[in-house]
Amino acid sequence: MQATQRDFAAIAGRAAKQCGIFFFCGPDEAGASAAAQTIIDLLENPGERIELAGSDVKSDPALLGDEARSGSLFSGRRHIYVRANGEEAHDALKTLIEIDDIEVSTLTPILVVATAATEKSRTAKLLARREDALVAMFWPPDLNSVSSAVRRMAEAAGLKLNGDLGERIARGSNLDVRVAQSEITKIAIYVDASPHSPVALSTEDLEAIGVKNEEDGFASVVNAVLKGETTKLDQELRRIREHGMNPVGLLLSLERRVTQLIQINSRLGPRGSIESLDRGAKARLGIFWRDERDIRDQLKIWRLQKLERLSAKLTKLHGDLLKNSKAAQLLLTQALAEITHFARRR
Fold it and tell me: Measured between alpha carbons, how far is 315 from 240 in angstroms, rounded to an integer?
């Protein structure tokens, strides 16, 4: 079974009942992650969540099958969530469905969110023709689609959005539906809204809680970290704390840049350079004039193997932040300092 962001909402309910393996891919990692959460919400009894890193199932392909056959010690039901990069989950899934020849419907539901993978990847081709698996491809969203998603989130949270407020939240989230969901949750708490007691959001409330486009503010932090600029990082972290910026939003911005560097590095090879790319190739890789110098400097520090390890580290950190929201700022600060010091030594 296959889908894109255009028809995913229409088939999600059927897929949640019919499929046991879900593979979400494409350049819109935020949309893919949001789709995975939609499937989890649609599962009759998702139970306990087991998170696996793509690097773990790549190094031990049997691990995924072992977990999929195991039951929860507590609820008896659970689901497996794999954050992978590219083809990291391919061998594990191939082992599970081909070599083990197991009935997928009898397994614990498996959801794989794979950055830097597409519908043409080996993993997607492995699953696409199966009726018990879903391959969903997500391209970068446009303002209208994210604004619509924001309005649906708001309705579910008990917020009534009038005028262009949905569009403003979408812009402020940099078209990232995960950040938008975080903002909607924060706003609902701020105005004491709930599905049973809806509240009409005012422009004043929106301005008071500070929804704005944080991506530009995150860019300087991301660049300081990946270029090993420890002194600048201290200044930037102080600014982040003063403005109360979202830790998850900052981590997502860093994850996006690391994914971009992996894609560029893979395209260029070990001896290539950005200068060898024409304007069209740069655009396809998301290299624009204001970021080109920073990206060039970061590629000198971070080679492909180290970027892949960093991506796995950030994936784990992402899960830790979601599990420990109260300590998110501290966990992120410690991780950023560690990464910056590593980059400085290169």
Answer: 21
Domain extents in the chain: 2-137, 143-208, 215-345
The stretches of 141-214 forming alpha helices (DSSP H) are: 143-157, 165-172, 177-191, 203-208
Partners of 25 in the β-ladder: 114, 137
- The rounded distance, in Å, linking the Cα atoms of 166 and 155 is 11
Average pLDDT, the chain: 86
pTM: 0.56
72 has a pLDDT exceeding 50: no
CATH number, span 2-137: 3.40.50.300
Q: What is the CATH number of domain 215-345?
A: 1.20.272.10
215-345: same fold as 2-137?
A: no
Closest CA to 226 of 299, 125, 120, 133: 299
Of 244 and 313, the one with more pLDDT: 313
Residue 277: how many other CB atoms lie within 10 Å:
18
Tell whether the model's pLDDT for residue 73 goes beyond 50.
no
Class of residue 330 by CB neighbours under 10 A (exposed 0-12, middle 13-18, buried 19+): exposed
Amino acid letter for position 160: K
Give me the numbers of helices (H) and strands (E) for the chain, helices first please. Answer: 17, 8
